[in-house]
């Protein structure tokens, strides 16, 4: 039986993507060679890279708007530093909404002064701060659109007077936004796009080249753009599989179509959390993430029964992060609504047993 996979990441990919990707590992496009043994400079792979980069801009509605898409390595964690290396001259403002924001702040602080425009640390990050001001004379403003661990999500973005940089690792391609409000968007592939190993960076070219520091080549967005995202050997399998997921998303009807489905899944999940007296949601209601629903079981004595029922129903990956405890149901793009129905059924069955 295929499991209902609620893992927070690396997470679920569409079945058809997995099939095509696995075929390519054996014989790519009837070339008699595996995708992972052909030259990244061959036409076959350059076409894949170019298609993936173009699909990103098309799906985000950023074609012809001065943006470039890059598939880099080192995870979103490398972007914490790379953003600062490329943009930080004197000071930057960061919105602190959780562990990932904190890590981004820590890395950028190695280079220069960082100012936290607001933080929700006072309440273990269970809400998104609002009503803060972004100083106009800073180099950039950084935020995390979806807080994977605590299950909060920015429902709207501030009108930033300076380039806005956003870590969208756990909700990229999940909802419609005006993506042109961002100067840089970055995301590790392994939630809504592909296998771990590549990181998507979408950068508006005209915000680059304004810092006085020397930037090592591998950290320099301009150099990556200049080399067509092939400054060094790219992670060919991760890029190819990401391209397949982007094609799948386009085939579904793009972000608008998947957003509708994501809303249905989230509504189903949160209505069970709210109506079932055995469970309690962790995040403030207005800031709840449509990707990661976090909740606790109020009666600890039912823990064992609940977990064995989950196992029986083929539900995996719902354990909460150690810093929050309880449970976390991650409902990324490729998770079918039937999986959410299966989880909700177990939760309501537990209520009838209790
Ligand atoms: N940012 C967010 C919001 C994440 O959820 C994660 C990982 O889960 C990261 C950054 C770190 O990504 P990576 O493991 O690709 O460095």
Summary, kept brief:
This protein is an alpha/beta fold. The protein has helices at 15-26, 43-59, 75-87, 99-108, 221-226, 236-252, 254-275, 303-312, 337-353; strands at residues 4-5, 67-72, 91-96, 113-119, 141-144, 146-147, 152-153, 164-167, 184-188, 199-204, 279-281, 292-297, 315-316, 327-330.
CATH architecture group name of the largest domain:
3-Layer(aba) Sandwich
Helix content: 25-40%
- What share of residues are in beta strands? 15-25%
Q: Would you identify the CATH H-level superfamily of the largest domain?
A: Type I PLP-dependent aspartate aminotransferase-like (Major domain)
The shape is globular
CATH topology group of the largest domain:
Aspartate Aminotransferase, domain 2
Question: Rg to the nearest angstrom?
Answer: 21 Å
pLDDT below 50 for ≥5 consecutive residues: which ranges?
Answer: none
Order of helical and strand elements = EHHEHEHEEEEEEEHHHEEHEEH
Strand order of the largest sheet: 2-10-9-8-5-3-4
Number of helices: 9
CATH class of the largest domain: Alpha Beta
Q: Identify every distinct bound molecule in the structure, by name, code or SMILES.
A: pyridoxal-5'-phosphate
Domain tally: 2
Total beta-strand segments: 14
Average pLDDT number: 97
Distance, first to last CA = 28 Å
The assigned structural class equals alpha/beta
> What characterizes the major β-sheet?
7 strands, mixed
Pathway: Cofactor biosynthesis; pyridoxine 5'-phosphate biosynthesis; pyridoxine 5'-phosphate from D-erythrose 4-phosphate: step 3/5; Amino-acid biosynthesis; L-serine biosynthesis; L-serine from 3-phospho-D-glycerate: step 2/3
Catalytic activity: O-phospho-L-serine + 2-oxoglutarate = 3-phosphooxypyruvate + L-glutamate; 4-(phosphooxy)-L-threonine + 2-oxoglutarate = (R)-3-hydroxy-2-oxo-4-phosphooxybutanoate + L-glutamate
Subcellular location: Cytoplasm
GO molecular function: O-phospho-L-serine:2-oxoglutarate aminotransferase activity; pyridoxal phosphate binding
